[in-house]
Amino acid sequence: HFIGQTTTVLPGESACYRCLSPAPPPPGAIPTCAQVGVIGVLPGVIGSIQATEAVKFLIGVGKLLNGRLLIYDAEGMDFSTVPIRKNPKCPLCGDHPRILELKDEIGAKNVCDIESGSPSSL
Fold it and tell me: Would residue 87 count as lying in a domain?
């Protein structure tokens, strides 16, 4: 609940999230946001970083996070980066992709197990 992470995905150039996690974990394998909670400002911090990356990309300035996973530990107030590589066997962006269309099977509600608009579940 105190850890956030982000990267910048450049399609065809850099690792995507499927490169890091080729398949979603089975249901119940990891706790949901509703079960463990998320410190309120954490999504804002990560969102601000993502917005900054988008602006840098659009105006062509600075070093982007592609090829690196930025990890923010809000409890320890520590930022770190881990190098990441595009996986040639990735089912989405690899040399022989198997995921060829978007499906609405996994949405935010499934991942975070929260009810939209329900303050008691946030």
Answer: yes
Total-model pTM: 0.77
13 vs 27, which has greater pLDDT?
Answer: 13
Residue 14: is its pLDDT beyond 50? yes
* From 19, 33, 90, 112, active-site residue: 33
- Average pLDDT, integer, range 75-103: 92
DSSP secondary structure letters along 4-33: EEE----TTTS--HHHH-SSPPPTTSS--H
Residue 33 is a catalytic residue: yes
Domain that holds residue 73: 3-22+31-100
Interacting residues of 119 by C-beta distance below 8 A, sequence separation 6+ = none
81 forms beta bridges with 70
